[in-house]
Design brief:
CATH class: Alpha Beta
CATH topology: Rossmann fold
Number of strands: 10
CATH superfamily: P-loop containing nucleotide triphosphate hydrolases
CATH architecture: 3-Layer(aba) Sandwich
Length: about 250
């Protein structure tokens, strides 16, 4: 069944049902996710926290349809991702999803404005460069549009990456440690940009981060540990973070 945005009657834009993921077989098998169930409402902001290697990034890849689960289903707007072929998944990501990674993944041979315009050009939008220019102005980088990634600071590169991810006003934004490569001051500024643009788009937002201060800006915080996903108390998470332990 091809991708459609037909499930407007449901408030849940994301549904995970019995989601399982493992790597390896036999004695080397590692279970990353064990029967995860989760509903995320439209325009809700959800943070997924947990220690390194617990499967946070894997979950984000499953949500984006970039990896198939071993078992279970991921549905976006009523579309079960396992029923879509590769082209249909690409269409869904192009039309409905914006992804922000820890590493900026900008194309080094393209200027900032060309990087931001790229998703719109792929979608054959005639106003691609106009929209890209407006987005760069919105994030305070109007004067840097003709600079290449190598000529930008880390914070500037991540803001360009965020602009590229949200220039098409996606309904769902996925962010994997978006401030992980930045110092505290720059990270806070980038986080402000990201949360502001997500709010403006009215997007559903799933954030993967070990940064508790960043996570608590969301409506709900989930803890991923031993393959299970649970609601966690923010006060506990802040205390664990202060002690230097994975919450």
């Amino acid at each position: 069944m091809p991708y459609t945005a037909r499930a407007r009657e449901s408030r849940a834009v994301i549904k995970l049902h019995n989601l399982c993921m493992h790597y390896g077989t036999g004695d080397t098998r590692v279970d990353v996710l064990r029967g995860v169930d989760l509903d995320i409402s439209r325009a809700e902001r959800v943070a997924i926290t947990g220690p390194s290697g617990c499967g946070k990034t894997t979950m984000l890849l499953l949500l984006a349809g970039l990896e198939p689960p071993a078992e279970g289903t991921v549905s976006i707007d009523g579309n079960a991702l396992n029923t879509l072929d590769r082209d249909e998944l690409a269409d869904l990501r192009r039309d409905r999803v914006g992804i922000v990674f820890q590493s900026f993944h900008l194309i080094p041979s393209l200027t900032a404005i060309d990087n931001v315009a790229l998703p719109l050009e792929i979608a054959r939008r005639r106003d691609a460069r106009v929209q890209a220019r407006q987005m760069l102005a919105q994030i305070g980088l109007a004067a840097r549009g003709h600079h290449y990634p190598g000529q930008l600071s880390g914070g500037e590169q991540q803001r360009v990456a965020i602009a590229r991810a949200l220039v098409h006003r996606p309904a769902l934004v996925l962010a994997d440690e978006p401030t992980g490569n930045l110092d505290d001051h720059t990270g806070a500024m980038v986080a402000d940009v990201l949360f502001s643009l997500v709010a403006e788009c009215g997007a559903t937002f799933v954030l993967v981060s070990h940064d508790i201060d960043l996570a608590r800006r969301c409506d709900r915080v989930m803890q991923l540990a031993d393959g299970s996903l649970n609601v966690r108390d923010l006060q506990h998470l802040r205390h664990a973070d202060a002690l230097g332990h994975p919450g």
